[in-house]
Amino acid sequence: MNEFQEKLKRLMDEYVHFIYRICKNFPDDEKYGITSQIKRASMSIILNYIEGYARKKPAVRLNFMEISYGSLKESNYILYFVLVEKIISTELYWQGKKYAEEIGAMLWTEISNLDKKLN
């Protein structure tokens, strides 16, 4: 991995830890609902990214990166949902949103570059 990719991986790691921290304050009755879903989605971002780099074929790597991007979008929506439901503060929402936007832009760059190499 190059410096850009390492930075992206670090941001993904920070984001998943951020999500896990805010989930500690989610209502107990959401343990198997949004809490579980946002944790799964956020963890999927970094795990699919890492797994993609373990694959030899660029097309397979691209598929894992696209799954990672989809999981980012999923977790980003849940972040918005918990804001609207007043489960998190506006400040926490914007912290998460900032992570999601930076990760999304960087991941999309990776996806676009790999897609260009394949086509």
Question: What's the structural blueprint in terms of helices and strands?
Answer:
Layout: H1 3-23, H2 34-53, H3 58-84, H4 90-118
Helix pairs in contact: 1-2, 1-4, 2-3, 3-4
Word description of this protein:
Helix 1 runs antiparallel to helix 2 (34-53), helix 2 (34-53) packs antiparallel against helix 3 (58-84) and helix 3 (58-84) runs antiparallel to helix 4 (90-118). The longest helix has 29 residues, at 90-118. It is built from four helices and no strands. The protein has one domain (3-118): Up-down Bundle (de novo design (two linked rop proteins)), CATH 1.20.1440.60. By secondary structure, it is mostly helical. The model has no long low-confidence stretch (mean pLDDT 95). It is elongated, with a radius of gyration of 15 Å.
Give descriptors for this structure:
mainly alpha, de novo design (two linked rop proteins), 4 helices
What order do the SSEs take from the amino end to the carboxyl end, as H and E? HHHH
Shape: elongated
- Topology-level CATH name: de novo design (two linked rop proteins)
CATH superfamily: 23S rRNA-intervening sequence
Mean pLDDT: 95
Give helix % range. Answer: over 70%
How many angstroms separate the termini?
22 Å
Percent in strands: under 5%
Number of domains: 1
**Largest beta-sheet details:** none
Radius of gyration: 15 Å
Summarize the model shown.
This protein has four helices and no strands. It has 119 residues and is an all-alpha fold. The protein has a single domain, classed as Up-down Bundle (de novo design (two linked rop proteins)).
